[in-house]
Design a protein that fits this description.
Elements: H1 2-21, H2 29-51, H3 57-85, H4 90-113, H5 117-130, H6 138-169, H7 174-193, H8 202-227, H9 232-254, H10 265-280, H11 288-319
Helix pairs in contact: 2-9, 3-4, 3-8, 3-9, 4-6, 5-10, 6-7, 6-8, 6-10, 7-8, 8-10, 9-11
Length: 320
C-alpha cells in the first residue's frame, strides 16, 4: 500500500516540476547564436595566431586573401550593408561605395602584380636604410602608393565624413559626442603630422602609421554598431568579423610573415608597418609575454563590447 502511495505522489509531482521549468515563450535562437560565436572565436583566435608563421602553399595564398577580405569588410562592407538596411542613410551609402571603389582598385592592382612578402620586406629594408621614398622600380612605386593610401586615406576621409554626418544630422547624444572627439583627434593628428612626416624620426612616424591604419576603421565599426545595430544577429556577426580582423592584424606583429605570402594590398601595408616597427623598436621574434599582453587586451575589448551589446539588446527589448 505504501509503495502505491509513493508511486502516486512521485508521478503527480514530477510532471508539475518539469512543467514549472519550461518556458514556452522562450526562443533560443539569439542565445544559441551568441554561444556559438563565443565558442568559435577563441578557437579561431588560436588557430589564426598559430598558423601565421608556418609555411604552406595554400596558406600562403588563403591567409593574405582572408586579410584583404576582413579589412575590406570592416572598412566599407559593414557601412554599406547598414546603409541599405536603413532608408535614410544615402550619404553613408555613397561614401561606402566610393570607399569600396578605391580599396577594390588597390586590391586588384596588388593581385595583378602577384608579388610575394619577401619582395616587400626587401623593399622596406631599403626604405628604412636609405630614406622614406626611395623607389627603384614599378613595384616600389606601387607599394609606396598603396601603403600611403591605405594608411592616410582612411584617417583623413573617415573622421571628416563622420564628424560632418553627425553635426549635419544634429545627433548630439553622448555616443555621438564621444566619437566626434575621437575622430577629431585623428583628424588633428593628420593635419599636424603629415606635412612634417619626412622630418619626423622613424620611430615616431611609425607610431602614427599604426594608429592611422587601425583606428579609423575600428572606430567607424563601433559607431555603426552602436547607432545602427540592425538586429542582434548582425551585431554579433559584425563584432565577430572585427575581432577576427584584429586577430590577423596582431599576428603580423607577433610573428614574422612568411616570405612566400602573397603580397595583397592589406598584407603589404601590414608587413611594411610591422617590419618598420620591428626594426626601430628592436625586436624580431615574438615573445610569450607580448602575446599574452595582446590576448589580455583583446579579452578586455571583448568584455567591453559585450557590455555595450547587452545595453543595446536591453534597449531593443524595451522598444518592442
Amino acid at each position: 500500500m505504501s509503495l502505491i502511495a509513493w508511486q502516486t505522489v512521485f508521478c503527480f509531482f514530477i510532471p508539475l516540476t518539469l512543467a514549472s521549468v519550461v518556458d514556452d515563450s522562450y526562443s533560443s535562437y539569439e542565445d544559441a547564436y551568441d554561444a556559438l560565436l563565443n565558442v568559435f572565436f577563441p578557437i579561431i583566435f588560436v588557430v589564426l595566431l598559430n598558423v601565421s608563421g608556418r609555411p604552406g602553399p595554400t596558406k600562403n595564398v588563403i591567409l593574405p586573401l582572408l586579410d584583404d577580405i576582413l579589412y575590406n569588410t570592416v572598412t566599407w562592407a559593414i557601412p554599406l550593408i547598414v546603409s541599405f538596411s536603413y532608408n535614410d542613410l544615402l550619404s553613408i551609402r555613397i561614401f561606402s561605395i566610393i570607399n569600396m571603389s578605391l580599396h577594390v582598385l588597390c586590391a586588384a592592382i596588388a593581385l595583378i602584380r602577384h608579388k610575394l612578402v619577401s619582395d616587400v620586406i626587401n623593399y622596406v629594408h631599403s626604405l628604412t636604410d636609405r630614406g622614406w621614398l626611395v623607389n627603384q622600380h614599378l613595384d616600389a612605386y606601387i607599394w609606396t602608393g598603396t601603403s600611403f593610401f591605405l594608411i592616410c586615406f582612411p584617417v583623413m576621409a573617415i573622421p571628416v565624413f563622420w564628424i560632418d554626418y553627425i553635426t549635419n544630422n544634429q545627433e548630439f547624444d553622448s555616443i555621438a559626442l564621444l566619437f566626434i572627439v575621437l575622430f577629431g583627434i585623428l583628424s588633428a593628428s593628420t593635419i599636424l603630422v603629415i606635412p612634417a612626416i619626412t622630418k619626423l624620426r622613424k620611430r615616431t612616424a611609425v607610431i602614427f602609421f599604426v594608429i592611422w591604419f587601425y583606428s579609423p576603421n575600428f572606430l567607424q565599426t563601433i559607431l555603426i554598431l552602436l547607432k545602427w545595430p540592425i538586429n542582434f544577429y548582425f551585431v554579433k556577426a559584425f563584432v565577430f568579423v572585427l575581432m577576427v580582423s584584429l586577430t590577423r592584424s596582431v599576428s603580423y606583429f607577433t610573428d614574422n610573415a612568411p616570405p612566400r605570402f602573397l603580397a595583397t594590398s592589406t598584407t603589404t601595408v601590414q608587413v611594411v608597418i610591422s617590419e618598420i616597427v620591428k626594426k626601430h623598436y628592436g625586436y624580431e621574434e615574438k615573445s610569450v609575454s607580448g602575446i599574452q599582453n595582446q590576448m589580455n587586451e583583446v579579452q578586455n575589448l571583448l568584455d567591453e563590447l559585450q557590455r555595450q551589446l547587452d545595453k543595446l539588446q536591453s534597449k531593443i527589448n524595451e522598444t518592442r
